[in-house]
Structures are given as C-alpha cells and as structure tokens.
Known about the structure:
By secondary structure, the chain is of the alpha/beta class. The chain has two domains: 1-30; 39-129, Immunoglobulin-like (Sandwich). Helices cover 19% and strands 35% of the residues. It is built from one helix and nine strands, in the order αβββββββββ. The protein has one helix at 2-26; strands spanning 39-44, 47-48, 55-57, 63-69, 78-79, 90-91, 100-105, 111-117, 120-129. It has a four-stranded mixed sheet with strand order 2-1-4-7, with no helix packed on it. It has a three-stranded mixed sheet with strand order 3-9-8, with no helix packed on it. Strands 5-6 form a two-stranded antiparallel sheet. A hairpin with a 2-residue loop joins β1 and β2. It is globular. The protein binds copper (II) ion. Residues 43, 46, 75, 117, 119-120, 123 line the site of copper (II) ion (CU). The site of copper (II) ion has 7 residues, from β9.
Amino acid sequence: MHNNIIAIVAICFATVGALWGIGNLMNPEPDVDLPIEDVLLIAQRSTFNGTNPDVYVAVNVPTKLVVQNDDAVTHDLKVDASSNGGITPINTAPLRGGQNFHTAIVVSKPGTYEYYCSYHPQMRGHINGQ
Ligand SMILES: [Cu+2]
C-alpha cells in the first residue's frame, strides 16, 4: 500500500513534469537575458547590411549571430582562424536567397578580426572584440 502511494505520487510528478515540458516547447521563452544585442547581418545587393558594418562584441561573451541572405545569388559568411587564436572560426553553409544561418561570435582575445563572403571579395568587414 505504501509503495502504491509512492508510485502514484511519482506518476503525478512525471505527468506534471511532462506537461510543463510540452508547455515550454509550445511557448518558448524569448531570449531576454542576452547581455548584449544579437548581431544580424543581411546579405543584400552584394553587401552585408548595405555597408559591411564593423561588429563590436565583448571578449568572452558569446554573441548570437544571424546571417540572412536576401539576395537572389548565393552568399556565405566566414571568419578564419586568427594567428592569435582569439576568435572561433565561423563558416555558414552556402546560403541561397531567403535562407539564413544561426551561429555565434565567440572572441576570447581582444582584437580585430575579419568576416567575409567567400563568393564576393568586396563583402567583408571587421569584428572588433574588446
Ligand atoms: Cu556574397
């Protein structure tokens, strides 16, 4: 009898836990706790954001990066390994028009690093980690 009560309580907890988990999946919480703004780079007219802007990130604070291709042609975004090892390399897949890629910028040493599109040499800018 005592074991039955324990089993019933355990099943209740498991059920509530499962429902809670499903509820969270259906209503994911927004990313409100990111310490700094996400970075959105949109490939358009063979530039990133029209100006290939410098991107500023804090050292040792992973920054969410979304690369969106709004052009008709394929683009990608790459960051190569640096000689000081201060940035985690980035390589989106080739992105066709309308596709996007979610990743992160992770800088571990202050410095200036280059991002670029491997298809279009003029599409390049800098990531400044400070
Ligand atoms: Cu490109």
